[in-house]
Amino acid sequence: LWGLHPVGLQICYYLLFLQEEVTKSCRDKHGRWANPWPTWRFPSYSMLFRFLFLEKDNSNVPASKEALDRELPVMEPYFVQNPNLSGSGPGLRVTWLGHATVLVEIDGVNVLTDPIFSQRASPIQYMGPKRFRGPPCTVEQLPRIDAVVISHSHYDHLDAGSVASLNARFGGELRWFVPMGLMDWLVKMGCENVMELDWWEENCVPGHDDVTFVCTPSQHWSKRTAWDDNKSLWSSWTVLGPDHRFFFAGDTGYCSSFAEIGRRFGPFDLAAIPIGAYLPRDVMKGQHVDPEEAVQIHEDLQARQSVAIHWGTFALAYEYYLDPPLRLREALEQKGLKPDCFFTLHHGESRLISAQDEDVFD
C-alpha cells in the first residue's frame, strides 16, 4: 500500500531506473571487442567481393568544381569570418565541418567530433578515399577547443594529421575522449590529456565539472592495420550540460542501444546522426544506418533536433552522392515529422539551437 503513496511511487520508479539493464561492452573468445546485438553482421567474403568488383558505383560525384559548388557549397565558418564572435556562451550551437566533424558549443564548452581536416581518409596522403568537398577551415582557424571525442579508429574518423595539428595547437589544454583501446595510440601521437572510457563510463573536462561526457554504445567495428581488427572499442558520445544535452552517434548501424540511451539521457536538445554510406544495403546494413534508420535513431533518442553527418564529403559507398538528404526528407515526411527537426547544413554552416538567454524548455 505504501508503494501507492506518491512518495513511495517516486522511490519505486527510481529503484527501477537504477536496476534498468543496459547493454555492456563485450569481447569475443579471442579478446577482441564484439557487438552484442542480433542486428550486427559483418559482410561475408562473397558480399565484399561483389561490392569491390561487381556492384555498380552510383555515387557519380561530378568532376567539375563548379557543379559541386552549386550543389554542395563550402561556406566560410562564422568564426573565420569574425573571430571575435567565436567565444562560446552558455547556449548551444553546431557547425558542420564535413563528414562526421562537427564543432558543438554547449554550455560554455567547445567540443570537436571525429576531426578530419586531411584530404584523404588514409594512412598515406597520395592514395585512398579523397574528399570531394574540402574542409571549410584549417585547424589553425578553429576557435578554442576544450574537448575532442573520437568514435572509433577508422581513418575517416581518426585522422593522424588532424590529431597532430590539434595537439600542436592546443597541447595539454585539450582533453581527448576515446573508447577503450585507443589511449596508447593518442599518447604515441604526443597527446597528453587523454581519457579512455568504456560504454556508460563518464568524465569531464578539467575546469568544466558541470559538463559530463559519457561514452555510449554504437554498432560498428574498428581497424587501422592488417592485424588490429576490433582491438579497440567503438562508441557514440553523450554530452550532458547543465542546460543542454548533445548526442554524437559517430558511425553506426541501427541497434537497440539508441533507445537505451534515450531512456537514460534523453530528451536531447541536439543529436548528430549519420545518413550516408549505406549502399549496397546487404554490405552496409550492420555498420551504417540509412536515412530511414537515422530518423528512427532521432526518435529513439527523443531528440528535439538532429543534424545530419557522414555524407557529402567522401564517396565511401555506392549511393548517389546527393541522395542521403533527399531520402532523409522523405523519411521525415513518412513519419509525419517536421523537416526542421532533422536538418542538413552546408559545409562550414552553423545553426544556433539555443541562445544564452533562451529557456531551453520552451
From TrEMBL:
Ranges for domain Metallo-beta-lactamase: 110-311
Location relative to the cell: Early endosome membrane; Endosome membrane; Golgi apparatus membrane; Nucleus envelope
Keywords assigned by UniProt, alphabetized: Acetylation, Endosome, Golgi apparatus, Hydrolase, Lipid degradation, Lipid metabolism, Membrane, Metal-binding, Nucleus, Phospholipid degradation, Phospholipid metabolism, Zinc
Binding site for an N-acyl-1,2-diacyl-sn-glycero-3-phosphoethanolamine: 155, 288
Record membrane topology: Peripheral membrane protein
Entry note: cofactor: Binds 2 zinc divalent cations per subunit.
Cofactor: Zn(2+)
Residues involved in deoxycholate binding: 223, 227, 315
Reactions the enzyme catalyzes: N-hexanoyl-1-hexadecanoyl-2-(9Z,12Z-octadecadienoyl)-sn-glycero-3-phosphoethanolamine + H2O = N-hexanoyl ethanolamine + 1-hexadecanoyl-2-(9Z,12Z-octadecadienoyl)-sn-glycero-3-phosphate + H(+); N-(5Z,8Z,11Z,14Z-eicosatetraenoyl)-1,2-diacyl-sn-glycero-3-phosphoethanolamine + H2O = N-(5Z,8Z,11Z,14Z-eicosatetraenoyl)-ethanolamine + a 1,2-diacyl-sn-glycero-3-phosphate + H(+); N-butanoyl-1-hexadecanoyl-2-(9Z,12Z-octadecadienoyl)-sn-glycero-3-phosphoethanolamine + H2O = N-butanoyl ethanolamine + 1-hexadecanoyl-2-(9Z,12Z-octadecadienoyl)-sn-glycero-3-phosphate + H(+); N-dodecanoyl-1,2-di-(9Z-octadecenoyl)-sn-glycero-3-phosphoethanolamine + H2O = N-dodecanoylethanolamine + 1,2-di-(9Z-octadecenoyl)-sn-glycero-3-phosphate + H(+)
An annotated Gene Ontology molecular function: N-acylphosphatidylethanolamine-specific phospholipase D activity
Amino acids binding Zn(2+) 1: 152, 154, 220, 251
Record keyword Lipid metabolism present: yes
GO biological process: N-acylethanolamine metabolic process; N-acylphosphatidylethanolamine metabolic process; phospholipid catabolic process
Keyword Mitochondrion (UniProt): no
Top EC class for this record: hydrolase
Chain's role: D-type phospholipase that hydrolyzes N-acyl-phosphatidylethanolamines (NAPEs) to produce bioactive N-acylethanolamines/fatty acid ethanolamides (NAEs/FAEs) and phosphatidic acid. Cleaves the terminal phosphodiester bond of diacyl- and alkenylacyl-NAPEs, primarily playing a role in the generation of long-chain saturated and monounsaturated NAEs in the brain. May control NAPE homeostasis in dopaminergic neuron membranes and regulate neuron survival, partly through RAC1 activation.
Subunit structure as annotated in this protein's UniProt entry: Homodimer. Bile acids promote the assembly of inactive monomers into an active dimer and enable catalysis.
Stated family: Belongs to the NAPE-PLD family.
Name listed for the protein in its UniProt record: N-acyl-phosphatidylethanolamine-hydrolyzing phospholipase D
Record organism: Neolamprologus brichardi (Fairy cichlid)
Upper taxonomic lineage: Eukaryota, Metazoa, Chordata, Craniata, Vertebrata
